[in-house]
Amino acid sequence: MRAPLRALTLAAVAGGAALGYASIVERNWFALRRADVPVLPAGSEPLRLLHLSDMHLTPGRHRLLSWLRSLDALAPDLVVNTGDSIAHAESVLPLLDALGPLLDRPGVFVYGSNDLYSPIPANPLRYLWGTSAKRNHRHVPDLPWAELGAGMAAAGWMDANNARGRIKAGGLDIEVGGVHDSHVSRAHYEDIAGPADPTADLRLGVMHSPEPAIMDQFAADGYDLLLAGHTHGGQVCVPGYGSLVTNCGLEPERASGLHRHPVEGGPARPWLHVSAGLGTSPWVPFRFACRPEATLLTLVPRIG
Ligand SMILES: [Fe+2]
């Protein structure tokens, strides 16, 4: 075999192996991440917050459902779901069933665009030069988002889509403000705008897509902790380097994990946790160097 042909063959074999690993192995290799967040008043007991996001559930994802079912053993005090939970009309009941006893715990949810609109084929390379914002030209949702929300709300979880409210969790009095997904023009921060209550033990901001302009408003209103998903952590990352894209206005350095927002500033800036999420679009069914994840955040008293 000539050298160029041999090189091409080797490249094709390596590419096929990488794709097989990313779609069969890593996509089902769920990780539980843990992080401490110093965000509570002095003297508070730690609060265990389970952050779920971007499950994109389709029929037949038994490993994902089984892993979800196992998470109640973590005994979280609060569960937050930052959206893109489903990707198929038949996914609501299996998802609610897998959440199971987690639904009996205090919870908060917002929707992502994929809870409303069924997935459509897309060129994954487009994420290198743009985001999904305004790319969805459909206006009539075709997925049972209301049924999904009704199921979580019926269990007692707070619907935080363009809403503010108060919840009790782990003995703490928590003010929650949330917005719907900005990528389908449904985020209305003006509905929740205004200073967060300084007498609450914690001020929690929840959204699907971590758009800096929206997070600036949460920060200005005095929220302590912001939770978001949407980025999939970059989904296809470079080993040893990290993510290349976030599919939103956030820079790749904050594609997942615990950071502050804004990046620079004083100690009053909110903490930001971006979940890399548990799934993918069924049309882009692979993850590389970016395992699907849920996160157990342990909220602890502020330092100093
Ligand atoms: Fe997503």
| Structural class determined from secondary elements | alpha/beta
Distance between the termini: 68 Å
Q: Which compounds are bound in this model?
A: fe (ii) ion
What amount of the residues lies in strands?
15-25%
Major sheet summary line: 6 strands, mixed
Description:
By secondary structure, the chain is of the alpha/beta class. The protein is 19% helix and 21% strand. The chain has 5 helices and 12 strands. It has helices at 3-25, 62-70, 92-99, 145-154, 212-220; strands spanning 31-40, 47-52, 78-81, 107-109, 158-159, 163-169, 172-178, 202-206, 225-228, 257-260, 271-274, 293-301. Strands 1-12-2-3-4-5 form a 6-stranded mixed beta sheet, covered by helices on one side. It is globular and about 75 Å long. The termini are far apart. Fe (ii) ion binds next to loops. Fe (ii) ion (FE2) is lined by residues 54, 56, 84, 112, 114, 230, 232, 277.
